Amino acid sequence: MRLSSVYRxxxxxxxxxxxxxxxxxxxxxxxxxxxxxxxxxxxxxxxRAAISIVDEDQSPISSRIITAFYxxxxxVPRLITLSEVDQRMDAGLDTxxxxxxxxxxxxxxxxxxxxxxxxxxxxxxxxxxxGSGYVQSIVAGEVNEFVNRYxxxxxxPVDLALRARFNPQLDKGWFSSINNLISSITMLSIILTGAxxxxxxxxxxxxHLLVMPVTPLEIMLSKIWSMGLVVVxxxxxxxxxxxxxxxxxxxxxxxxxxxxxxxxxxxxxTCMGIFLxxxxxxxxxxxxxxxxxxxxxxxxxxxxxxxxxxxxxxQHIMLAAPNTHFVILSQAVLFRAAGFSVVWPQLAALxxxxxxxxxxxxxxxxxxxx
Length: 370
Known about the structure:
Distance between the termini: 19 Å
Structural class: mainly alpha
Mean pLDDT: 87
Number of strands: 4
Oligomer: single chain
Strand content: under 5%
Strand order of the largest sheet: 2-1-3-4
Shape: elongated
Order of helices and strands: HHEHEHEHEHHHHHHHHH
Number of domains: 2
Helix content: 55-70%
Low-confidence stretches: none
Number of helices: 14
Largest sheet: 4 strands, mixed
Radius of gyration: 28 Å
């Protein structure tokens, strides 16, 4: 193997990428706009939920309940009649419809425990799940304060001292931005190398390489280092400029340790991309095959949901996937400032899995060239 040939073939791959505008747009989008929007969208807390109220009591306590709903959790409540509830819910105008029955204040003061009906549009699952608890808490708080004739908290026998580590504000954007960066690294590593190989086959340049004095190992290494360089460079740029700069997410750990983990993960994923490209016959087939492989990798690696909440057999199977170890490493380094003594098992696993993938991909690539 000649390193000069690997270098020149890699430069050729970079020029081929520069001439492909769609892949360039995909790289820019995946490491900038996608991360920014995922961090700013879909908050876990309730945000401007649509609510309407039917006030059949017209009492001071019902007025207190109505004025207790305000932004940013809810929009300003709309007062409607009982006949409008079903119509507005069917039209999707309201997520919550609260019906305060007649004589509600009289029954409360008499100690009769009256009921208030809450209608919820459960098709808006995120708001419906958290919003019902918010409404119940707000109504109970206003009623208790009205009955007790003062505002205050009920003393409890045990006081819970809550300390949130690594994310004191419980900001979902911190987690979403890092998780989306990890997903982009995995996705682009597979796509770029696979697309580079299929592009050469569709353009007929693979035959030109076969008549040149280069080996399959040199061709494969050139695609790995060139596309890997693009992914690693874009990921570090996104981490520093987009996540730490624009989104102001504090990065606690070592950039060097994260970069080493990224290089090992990209090495394994680019080998997987070459293997998938040799199996697929064309770019559409590669896209379909990518869906079958990439979606399980992303969903079951522990980035979307914790691995501990999955069945044990899934946890054991996914240990064979490199991005599972990369997710563990990235979260430990970037969130908890873990050092080498903590994440060395993940680094060793990435190196071992990458070597295995490289061996099988090289065998398959040689068969593909024959």
